[in-house]
Amino acid sequence: MKISYNWLSDYIEWKERDPKKIADAMTVGMGEVDATVVQGELLEHCVVGKVLTKEKHPNADKLSLCTVETDQGKKQIVCGGTNVVEGMLVAFAHIGATVEWHGTERMTLTKVKIRGIESEGMICAQEELGLTMFPAKESDGEHPIVDLTPRKLKVGTPLKKALEINDVLFHIDNHAITNRPDLFSHIGVARELVAMGLAVWKKQSSVRKPKFPTTDLPFRTKNTIPTLIPRYFGCTISIDSLGVTPDWMRQKLEAVGIRSINLPVDITNYVAQELGMPLHSFDVGDISGNIEMRTSKKGEKLVTLDEVERALPDGAIVLSDDEGIFDLLGIMGGLRSSTKETTRLLYLHAAIVDPISIRRGIIATNHRTDASTVYEKGIPHSAAETGFYRALELILAHVPGSKIASKLEMSGKDEKRDAIILPDGHATKVIGMPIKNTDSKKILTNLGFLVTAKGKDLIVVPPLWRKDVSGVHDVVEDIARIIGYHQIPSAVPMAPMRPPMRDTRLHTLRDSLKESGFMETLHLAFVSSELLKKSGIDPATALEVENPLGSELSLLRTHLFPRLLETAAREQRVNPKARIKLFEVGAVFEKNGTSHQRITILMTSENSGKIEDDTMLIVKEAMNHALANTGYDVPEISEAHEQSYAHPGRSGALKINGKGLGLLWTLHPSVSQSFGFTGAVGLCSLDLDTLFSLPAKTTIATPLAAFPSISFDETLPLSAGSEAQRVKAKTASTLLSSINVQSYYGEGAKANVTLRFSYRSDEKTLTEEEAKVEHGKVMKSISN
Asked: Which of 108, 147, 170, 569 could form a disulfide with 675 if both were Cys (CB 3.0 to 4.6 A apart)?
């Protein structure tokens, strides 16, 4: 959005005249100003020149040799312009001028030789001097120069003076004001500047509503979509000719990048920029029959003003007559009904249209215009009446012979705004600095709000053009931004900044199992009834998924080990002799829909018969190690209820502090066989919810032994009293540091176990003789 400083000056008296300070204030309090452009920056040392002669360059086919009359006499110029002719008035840059070569890189002109011919300046194209008000035409060729001949300017006049280029343009980022359609206008921006204290209003004359004749329109209008066109104004105007656009209007339009077309069209564009209300004028002579406001059908076509035939989508808002669609309402008018030199009867209309439909039309046609950009923001209904009467006033004042030729066509009503209560002190509380009610009232009044007092509270009615204000929070935001966010004192929060307590127990469990060589897995929480049956679990105990992706994912898991068994079996098929050590943490689900967290540990191995290869004992040892690191005692093991998936003689229930914790077991041979395991599979499953409900002890590290140990292995018969023997042994010698099982062999009454007895002193290195003496005491205690 381009906003002109000079145009704003028509409505306001500036308190602050520095464009940079104005732009900074607008950025802070209204919307981001991307750039501040001072017009005529490249016009120093540039004048109006006249081409006296034109000859072909002797050494280049595409260059001309021209003589140009300037304020410094005649200059010889080498020119590549394709449209240059003798007698043409041109934009001429003297030596020392700065130009943008082909609109890109800036360069300062010097006297140069081009293909052997000296050139004393430059005949410029519009992009080289930033003269966007002179767009190139296709008929001008590939490299056109600016043609000033129609302006009838005096040769040698400085371009700045000749073109009256002395404006400052503020380029406001559309994204920063996307919720503020009122800011897509000079009046809307002027209102903000007054509220921010940068300017005061000049005395403005109100727009007068003219008298309309009782003559009917030359056609009937039918609005079949009143919900999509909720407000509408229109009438016909007879004219003698199109007239000539006044210089002041043309200059303002060109300053914001709008090319002058003809006076009626320029007036509609002027009002759109002034008030933010797009309008359109039609040639009544090109309208056939009655006008219908409707939505398009997919496949219908329209040739728009840019002479492009566009295929319309289903649901675009259009105007049609007996010959078909002639206007894509809110986006672009049709070429057939456009205002042209032969037009003698205008139909001027102002319509409010549904912003969602406009946006869909923009996307479907891949065509965005200035009008559609504003329409899609949601123009308030009141803008239609204001814009219509302003355009009508300008047409009657400036178009030759203009007279209103019909009665007013009008439909719909303006919106009504509900009052918002701003409680006393609320702005102070929210903003964080003292705000007086008188200051709030002044700010809101300058923004167009209707403000009255009710006791100490303020009753605020938002203006019709502020559809973005819906509650007291929006009112406070307006007060804060006009005061200036940078004016609000900053304060460091006084709340204590303590880090939250972290529960690292699960991480410790995981890390400990990984240290023991177990790999963590992660499976989906869904299983099939076939997998549960294969694992020895009744599928009827599982919760069914209402809309499963497939039968293999139709149930919620009741245990973690079925998927672990599936993964371990697949790994064993790849590497039959590998020891597979896995664990998983995850939720399991009951039939009633409740869930709890569990951890399951699994290990596979070959049947070697050695105690060191017993998978259940290895899993138990890893579990005990992980629990000890986490701060828990070794669980008690007791007789377990028989489970269809557990070996009946090799399973035990785990308890801590009398609470059931889980199960330690060897997989049932039938289940093991169904998965194809060649050896025993040991498993352990713990209920983490139960475990973590118990407080963990603080783990106290013990120092490493300072002196080495001496060990002796002894093979003893395994009996029911073996554990008692180990207890006796620990009391027989103070130097006995540990007794560990090394191996186990045999069966039943003939079973034997090899124990390793380790001896260590905390004061010195033991000799073998000293260790043997202590070992003798231990063995004697065992044999008694």
From this structure: 569
